[in-house]
Amino acid sequence: MQTVISNSSPIIHLAKIGRLDLLKQFFGTITVPQMVWKECTSPGASRPEIESILSADWIKVVKINDRIVTLLRHDIDHGEAEAIALSLERKASLILLDDSEAREKARLYHLPITGTVGLLLRAYREGLLNSLTDTLDELEASGFRLGTKLKERLLKEVAEI
After folding, report:
1. Are residues 76 and 112 in the same domain?
2. Which pLDDT tens digit goes with each residue over 78-115?
3. Which of 37, 45, 83, 103 has most Cβ atoms within 10 angstroms of its Cβ?
4. Are 75 and 105 within 8 A, CB to CB?
5. Domain range for residue 101?
6. CA pair distance 97, 80, nearest whole angstrom
């Protein structure tokens, strides 16, 4: 059985564009540390995605070893540090991270990584999205920062440019 750990960004952004279901379809269950859950569900202005996250009973919240987090917190934020620490503790099959510094730190530990864009690319390839262009546009409109070069490369890769 695979163990998939997520940071808050993929959960929040997929929820914002109404595609949180992709995580359940791809992985069944995902596991998050307590800080990530707090980041995903803390009330804030214009956060309608919270309701869909709270109702996702397939997201499991667990406590982790704080000593590892303390070491990681020097370079990355608390939620990312907890997600990496939990991935190490649970020998995760995959960690979902978007932040480049957090991804760099996870690579040092040889953790298999993907992020929101990788998940959307997989969904498109599996026929779960009609248009990668429209979905990436929607993702950017939700506040996700996607570099122009990366977006162009992805759209060329799937022949939408």
Report:
1. yes
2. 999 999 999 999 999 999 999 999 999 999 999 999 99
3. 83
4. yes
5. 4-117
6. 8
